[in-house]
């Protein structure tokens, strides 16, 4: 019996590799002879880099950059010398997992560190960049990244804007003439894990701002600031990308990648499925177990479990999802190929307990799933 285990990361709990290991432990408890294949996945958020490095054989490199709060941090990126391709994961520099829940501030967090990683790639001689978005602690529309790459964002007094999305409300001059000239020869593909536009009720600030520390008042302020930023960008570039599907990914980094780097935006899970050869791994599989922190209606916009279910459905392989939480609208995932979905908690518990016990809970759920699966086959 072949069991394919392909989870995404569980935010604030476990990376995808650790989640896969815990799931495999549970499977083997129930079926020691099972052929268990672990394939950690990602849809553009944290953990995607790990999947890419494993599948391509790229070299993992480390750079000292700023985190979302401007503090020094060691961030990993990938370098494939033969193809001159760099792999940069936004979450490595500007991710939620780098800062505590108490420190999160959507108003002032920055993507400057992402720009520093792109500079590292350019210094290495990259001509192709695969930039993965998702899991960000930021809502600055990529303004920090632009600064790190040489752009000037000034207020009406000619002073440089401070870090963060809120500062964009005072943007008077967007000077792109000082951008790193090497960017002109860089082909950029961007993996996004959502299809939200930049602004409005489905935009970056409204949908994702609250998990980054934004109050309802902050959301309104950030949305207006990003709209002002988009206005100036449209005047400068002659194109307006605010309504593009995926522009709202990672606090507006999808917008910045398309507008300023000329990036092609692709659903992250589709790109990862291609890179890791997931369709080949499905051959001969009897069951797929996947999961992420929350399965809900939003998951249909490009999250890992639904992307995996769509691929598995084409080969008639059943898919079980283990989620930290089943949110509103999750049952729509049945139509996409998900056979069954379960929340991890085995009883009443607060968030801190659930996070600390994630590995244990995953192993237990997988053991029970396999015991049932073996009986009904």
Automatic annotation (TrEMBL):
Protein name (database record): Glycerate kinase
Family classification: Belongs to the glycerate kinase type-1 family.
InterPro entries hit by this protein: Glyc_kinase_flavodox-like_fold, Glycerate_kinase, Glycerate_kinase_RE-like, Glycerate_kinase_sf
Residues passing through the membrane, by range: none
Molecular-function annotations in GO: glycerate kinase activity
Lineage, uppermost ranks: Bacteria, Pseudomonadati, Pseudomonadota, Gammaproteobacteria, Oceanospirillales
GO biological process: organic acid phosphorylation
Organism domain of life: Bacteria
Gene3D superfamilies in UniProt: Glycerate kinase, domain 1, Glycerate kinase, domain 2
Keyword field: Kinase, Transferase
